[in-house]
Here is the input.
Amino acid sequence: MQHQLPKGTFDILPYGTDEAWQLSDLWQYVEEAIRKISSRYGYREIRTPIYELTGLFDRGVGETSDIVTKEMFTFEDKGGRSITLRPEGTSSVMRAFIENRLANLGAVHKLFYIGPMFRYERPQSGRYRQHHQFGIEAIGNAGPEQDAEIIDLLYQFYKELGLKNLKVHVNSVGDLESRASFKAALLDYLRPHFAELSEDSKARFEKNPLRILDSKDPKDKELVKGAPSILNYLTPSAKSHFEQLLSYLDQIQIPYKVDDRIVRGLDYYNKTVFEVLTGDLGAQNTIGAGGRFDGLISTFGGPDLPAVGCATGLERVLQVMMAQKISIPKSLRPLVYFIPMGDEARKTCFSLVTQCRHQHIAAEIELSAKKVPSAIQNAIRAEATYCIVLGSDELEKGAIQLKNLHTREQSELKLDHLLTHLKELSHA
Ligand code: ATP
Ligand code: MG
Here is the structure.
């Protein structure tokens, strides 16, 4: 019986996929870029389990968010505990930060993570049930420089991968006081239109009206266009934080647009919120997003520390790279491909290929093809640069033909000199 992938998931393969973004070379390239840029900006990796006790996300992400109301993969384990596959990274990182008492080890903590996230969504291009995120979190700095650093890192990451035509949209959702006065104004605006709201938004009207601004329902979207702007309700300190952030973004030349409709889908944000948008992904046009969440760590029972972070979906990053025809350097392929003819040659080739590998030369040996032409086809498929056919003649003469598979040129070499020669070629 043949088995199938669960809906909304995909395999990442070394070859054999029609979707270029599902090639593992590409994933490795992007993951390497993540590790490089994160360490350059002073962020260290944190890895947490892919599942947590469900209560973490109810509290952190927020009980009225789309993630918690509709999208979580929640199940009971054999011990009767409610478990959830993590839908996002921040809650787990903060749980780990508190539980491992990292706050005792310094004033500022800069962390990054890469890994799968799980959301029960309607699968479509750019929207999967298992997707991957690269996220960064900076804990301990309340100043706007820290928000600017986070936005800069994310933007620079995209830039270094070669992505073009990105838009950074920023907003401030203020502090608690700003939100309380804005909420009142928003409710006044929405009240006469209550009947026109989507069912989801009706439910949010009492519990969390700000989230109505984030609705994906087309009618809601139209309606909120006329809603008041949160930027007119910021307290002086929230306003000054936002203005300073914008001036830092000007200073470091990040092209941004102030967009007062962004509230973000998660409950824990305050002050800065932002999204990075692309025109190359159709409906799924947000490739990364984040914001400040000064209250989250203390809500989780940890110290009262400010924090700001963001996350980007790697599928969407790779899809934009493909849409923009960005090519990446090839990963290592065999420098040489040995093709033995006969048992004696097989032993010699096995010894040679092993010596190559021990000396850090990428090398492969043909162990299955019966005929030379099909072995050479295999060498070409493996994208080897050279191949060597070795039979009893070559063993007798102690000399081989080194064939360049790109140029088709051949050169004769003494078998004794082969390794030294290959070593030189591998450095060239
Ligand atoms: P969207 O508005 O597209 O649903 P979101 O607000 O739910 O996004 P976040 O929770 O901020 O997204 O997640 C960070 C990033 O992860 C998104 O900007 C996006 O690139 C990616 N992402 C989120 N959900 C998915 C998904 N189901 N499939 C693929 N990527 C996703
Ligand atoms: Mg979503």
